[in-house]
Amino acid sequence: MKRRLPLLVVLVTALVCMGLKFLNLGEKGATLATDLDTIVQTSYLFAFLFGPIHLIRLHYSYVQKRRPNWAYSAFLLGVCAVTTVIFFINKIDGPVSTFIIDSITNATDSAIYAMLGFYVCSAAYRSFKLKNVEATILLIAAVILMLGQAPIGDAIIPNTSKFAQWILDVPNSAGMRGIRIGASIGAFAASIRVILGLERSWTGSGS
Amino acid sequence: MGAEQWSFMFKTLSILAAWSYLVKGDNPIYTAAEHFLVGSATAYGIVYTIQNQIVPRIVDDIIGRGKWGYVFGAILGLLIYFSFVKGQEWIARITMGFWIGYGAGYSLAYSPPVFLKQVTDTFINLRTGDFIKSFNNILYFLVAVTALVYFAFTLKKDKGPLYYGSRFGRYALMVAFGSAYGSITMAYLSLIIGQLEIILRDTLHLIK
Amino acid sequence: MDWKKLQWIDVRILYAIIIVCLMIPMFRPVGLPVAISDNTRTVYNTVASVPDGGVIWVSHDTGPGNAPELNPMITALARQAFAKNCKLISTSLFNQTFGPGTTFDIIDAVAKEMGKEYGVDWVHLGYRDNAWPATIRLMIDNILEGAINRDWKGEPLDKMPLMKEVKSIKDDVDLIFCTTVGSPGYSDWMTYVSEPLHIPLTGGASLTMYSGVQPYIRSGQLKGFLGGLRGAAEYEQLVGVPGAGLAGMDAQSLGHITVIVFLILGNVGYFVSKRSAKKE
Prior knowledge:
The complex is a heterotrimer. Chain A contains eight helices and no strands. By secondary structure, chain A is mainly α. Chain A folds into four domains: 1-48, no CATH class; 50-90; 94-127; 130-195, no CATH class. Chain A is extended, with a radius of gyration of 26 Å. Helices cover 80% and strands 0% of the residues of chain B. Chain C is of the alpha/beta class. Chain C has helices at 11-27, 38-48, 67-83, 99-113, 131-141, 143-146, 161-165, 169-172, 186-197, 207-219, 228-239, 244-247, 249-279; strands at residues 55-61, 87-91, 122-126, 175-180, 201-205, 226-227. A six-stranded parallel β-sheet of chain C has the order 3-2-1-4-5-6. Chains A and B meet through α1, α2, α3, α4 and α5 of A and α1, α2, α3, α4 and α5 of B.
């Protein structure tokens, strides 16, 4: 029962959702759909502490067991506690909250993500070797795109941007379409497997 | 120094703290900045959800408008916390099952029109009045079909049309991945440019 | 010269070269012209085709990471929309820390410049937990229900004049403009809103995913889509107010040349090593 009940819930909920979309149930169907959406929305809202609790438990255990670098975990817990109080008192749009989020949190997040730019450049230098025909084609396409997307491409070789746009519009678009069609069919199959209870890894009991 | 300038200063310090990883690898400054980011972002998420969504739902909707049916949704959401109770994790899976069923059901219900449009748009007019347009359409159709042939790994493709089709599809996919790489390079360089503008223009006022 | 050493340059030197090469055009801008693509013209024309005073739903579905690429698009869109006296309703459904405040600041800067009032000409709903598909499905029929009657600051929506006119996405929204970096993003807007309700969808994507967006542009499911900083620069030109997009193009150019030089250097070192290994 403990393993079957969640699978039954998946099946019934999925069938109800598909039925609401495909069958024309009139006013009653519309009301049921709205109620279902609201229940899902409300359930997600009240589950909002799931992630933070996991995070706090994890870092608390690091501090308790004095794992290597436990001081950083203590720092994280302290920052979380202090900033929670600040955000409650100052409200989300208050000057102190805005300062912390804009000037430190988002700025750090943005800078960490921007580091990928450096890695892309070092990857271009280290990993991108013309070892075979495929690598050569890939490299030529990449170079044409890079020149075409920047204004300097047209300055060096006229109409580079038009040729780069053609690569995006025709061969790239067609290749991506083939990939998308294949991926969509795979996604349908995966959804059906989950709905029918053939995919059970999320229940903790394996397939 | 005004509030805005202090803000730009702290942004610059945050950028330098993050980028210290490039010079020294894992170091105390980077690790501290990373942990601050995670801690403050978690706190913001908690307060934002409570202030803007949970409190209005309880005060305005459930109590104010008498929509007591929402309590069922609240209980369903609260069941997820049973995953922290040893031996009772199965109760949390009821809520997860509900979310999974909802997501999978509507995904299957809504996705076909989007997907089918992609399929129908692949079978385009190969003979138009214009030579370049016809060439493009023929190439488009060939690349889309041969890319699918390439990904059909259960087919025997060691000789004949499937072999050549698969190879052509592979080369066409290399063009697609190369253009993706070129685009990605441009994207990440523009992110670095954004950070440098904060440092040079907004903080140090060295550029306009 | 030992060409084999070309393969083993310390990456920190490469990082320093990249930073210097990106900085040089910032000190000495060249102002290379940026050609405008058909895609960008389609986006511009799609926004222009919204009737004056119409409603545009703007969803800035990005995080702080990709913000430098996509923020200029929202600024330009706000200018074009406000110039036509269009009303804007904005959301930011990708990242919780970025969505509420930063998106508000971007549109607010343009709104103040153009004399538009918050609550009357535009409203920002911020970030919503589980937007897809539950909250958006609710907003399709009743925006106040879906947004729990609160904007990003927690102010009641039913007190705002704009929300008395704009009650649902399906009846009152003329265009969806969404900037996207992944999921949730344009594919969710397309699947749950644009396709079933036949509301035109346009916007912009980070270049990290721009090549994957092309099939939808070709099929017409997206009415053109801007691509990264370049797309933002082109759009700014059409709107007529240069901004961060155009400002970054010179640095972008030199950055690309630098990456291509790195590619060449790495391959020269590789081929020379290969040849020496063969000789040995």
